[in-house]
Design a protein that fits this description.
- The protein is an alpha/beta fold.
- Among the domains are: 149 residues, Alpha-Beta Horseshoe (Leucine-rich repeat, LRR (right-handed beta-alpha superhelix)); 210 residues, P-loop containing nucleotide triphosphate hydrolases (Rossmann fold, 3-Layer(aba) Sandwich).
- It has 16 helices and 22 strands.
- The strands form 3 sheets. Strands 1-2-3-4-5-6-7-8-9-10-11-12-13 form a 13-stranded mixed sheet. The protein has a 5-stranded parallel sheet with strand order 15-20-14-21-22. It has a 4-stranded mixed sheet with strand order 17-16-19-18.
- Helix 2 crosses helix 3.
- The structure holds adenosine-5'-triphosphate.
């Protein structure tokens, strides 16, 4: 405590430390003075301490710092918590780097050009209204002006500021910081900011504090979405927090965050966010599956023909999978028509309206949305899928109706349907049917006159998915058929099926079939008469045949292996990067 607030020698001596060489190097001097809380008003005595490099005089009653004007080597100054009305109002030292003037009564920022070496300047808790005169501080990295009365961000030009604190002011907008391209940490908490516009492009930003502002709209995150280094974002006490699923929405849109609202982001949260807003097809399928299982558990149990004939052999089912317009439905119906003793068509449900030539109960069970939802709740669906806003679904009853006749079931669906089906106990054969020429596909969709341009474009884009799955998940599809030419595609399917079943067509054109017969097929070695055909129509026989390893598959493998051995070349691909199964054609 200084008597009368005037700094005396004893007090100075008590505060001196860090004995070292003077800046000129010719003397031993004290470099550091710390006199916090001495109730000092007058520090005139410090005029004699010209060698000081660090001065800390916080928690005093200083109104005037003129005495510091005689310290040319001063590097660091802390005069926080005093009664100063002017900022840096003394003869400038050569190289002042850090200055803390927080908690004073400063109302104005003077020309700071004489203090151009400043790297850190803290003027928090003063009464500053206007940001100005920083222009010459070309080394300023950290600027803190929290708790002032600033209404507008300005005057920072292209300073190399990395940390900017303007919290608790009267800011309404994030403006004039475009040129601060080194900004890493920005604190704008406690203002009246409504939009994050202005933050975009600050690619080094790691942390943004916007607590207690007026951010209300989720779309504001667009401005920080591409700040790839951003790890910490604080939006506490903003209306946006009231939005449903607020936290997961932010985590989904700003995936790089590790800390949101001062809470660490857990990996599980990131996964939940992705599953909520952009679930993978597998997640969608799992949800679909779980929903139907849960609903079916709530129904009385019953014995199903389709789970027979035995627990070891799966019920024979053929799933034609592919994009809309692939021609799956025509292929499926044609197959059933030609092989009525083997196949029945599993009629799916849909909420979409029938096309002019479609027949209720034959092409689909066309139902209302209400009926569809009721069917879901009654636990009858095996899988459902929403396509272009319409619902599609396959009921266990549709399969049962076919199984009861002792027939194998043929159905068609999109990829998502397959993913759900793969979760069930059914083990169908999956045949990817897809036009490999984009032009042919587009033409087919267009010729139907049933889809808008957007729908066509969407379907075309989506077709990539099939190519991806075929490429990246070997074995996902048992077979691939190019359906550019639907007649040709049917021929392939027909031979494929005959190969699987080891039959000849009821109306075979032998010359047509011969080239496709597999030499090692013992089933084909047999002479199938109409009698043996009739015998083999039971579900038991079908199941036995169905569960054999695919002759065509192994033939494909052999063909491809020998091709690879011969040429060393990778698998041949066709249009859209798809490997087509020419299994039966290789013989
Ligand atoms: N239960 C289901 N689950 C998933 N997808 C389904 C289901 N039933 C039908 N789909 C598919 O929904 C899409 C739209 O059905 P739609 O009947 O309009 O197709 P489509 O134009 O006749 O298809 P394609 O020409 O390939 O037969 C088709 O790809 C169809 O296979």
């Amino acid at each position: 405590m200084c008597p009368g607030g005037v700094l005396d020698e004893d007090s100075v001596i008590s505060g001196l430390s860090n004995l070292g060489r003077s800046a000129e190097g010719d003397k031993q001097v004290y470099l550091h003075l710390a006199l916090p809380g001495f109730s000092m008003k007058d520090i005139t005595l410090l005029c004699e301490f010209e060698h000081l490099q660090k001065v800390e005089l916080p928690y005093n009653e200083l109104t005037d710092l003129k005495a510091l004007g005689n310290m040319p080597h001063l590097l660091e100054l802390d005069v926080s918590h005093n009664k100063l009305k002017a900022l840096l109002d003394f003869n400038p030292p050569k190289n002042l780097k850090m200055a803390d003037f927080s908690f004073n009564q400063i109302t104005d920022i003077p020309d700071l050009a004489p203090h151009h070496c400043l790297t850190i300047l803290n003027i928090d808790n003063n009464q500053i209204k206007e940001m100005k005169n920083f222009g010459k501080c070309h080394r300023l990295k950290r600027l803190s002006l929290a708790h002032n009365q600033i209404e507008k961000i300005q005057g920072l030009h292209s300073l190399p500021i990395t940390h900017l604190n303007l919290s608790a002011n009267k800011l309404k907008k994030i403006e004039n910081i475009k040129e601060l391209d080194r900004l890493q940490v920005l604190n704008l908490s406690g203002n009246q900011i409504r939009s994050l516009d202005g933050l975009q492009g600050h690619e080094y930003l790691e942390g943004i504090d916007l607590e207690d502002n007026e951010i209300i709209d989720l779309s504001e995150v667009q401005y920080v979405q591409k700040l790839f280094l951003l790890r910490q974002l604080n939006l506490q006490r903003n209306p946006i927090r009231e939005l449903p699923d607020y936290r997961l929405s932010i985590l989904f849109h700003v995936r790089q965050l590790t800390d949101l609202d001062n809470h660490r982001v857990e990996v599980e949260e990131k996964v939940s966010a992705t599953n909520m807003f952009s679930p993978s097809l597998e997640v969608i399928a799992s949800r679909d599956h779980i929903m139907h299982v849960v609903y079916s558990f709530m129904q009385p149990s019953r014995i199903l023909d389709s789970t027979l004939p035995s627990t070891e052999t799966p019920y024979p089912m053929l799933v034609l999978v592919g994009p809309q317009g692939a021609g799956k439905q025509s292929l499926a119906l044609k197959l059933v028509e030609e092989f009525p003793d083997y196949f029945g068509y599993g009629v799916a449900h849909t909420t979409r309206k029938p096309l002019p030539d479609e027949v209720q109960g034959k092409d689909y069970n066309f139902v209302s949305l209400g009926e569809f939802e009721e069917t879901i709740k009654s636990g009858k669906f095996l899988q459902t899928y929403s396509y272009h806003g319409e619902l599609f679904g396959l009921t266990i009853d549709a399969i049962e109706a076919v199984a009861r006749e002792g027939l194998a079931c043929v159905v068609h669906m999109e990829l998502e349907g397959v993913l759900t089906l793969k979760n069930t106990s059914f083990e169908p054969r999956y045949v990817l049917v897809m036009p490999l020429s984009e032009e042919a596909h587009e033409k087919r969709l267009r010729d139907r006159n049933a889809y808008s341009e957007t729908q066509i474009a969407w379907t075309m884009d989506r077709s990539e998915l099939y190519a991806d799955y075929n490429r990246e998940k070997p074995g996902f599809f048992d077979m691939v058929i190019d359906s550019d030419d639907i007649v040709e595609a049917y021929k392939r399917l027909r031979h494929l099926v005959m190969d699987y079943l080891g039959i000849r067509a009821p109306t075979p054109s032998v010359s047509d079939l011969e080239p496709f017969m597999t030499a090692d097929s013992n089933l084909l070695d047999k002479d199938y008469t109409s009698d043996t055909l009739a015998q083999s129509t039971s579900a038991n026989n079908l199941a036995r045949t169905w569960s054999k390893p695919s002759l065509a598959d192994s033939a494909t493998q052999q063909a491809l292996a020998s091709l690879k051995a011969k040429t060393g070349s990778p698998m041949p691909t066709h249009g859209r990067g798809i490997v087509v199964s020419h299994a039966t054609m290789t013989h």
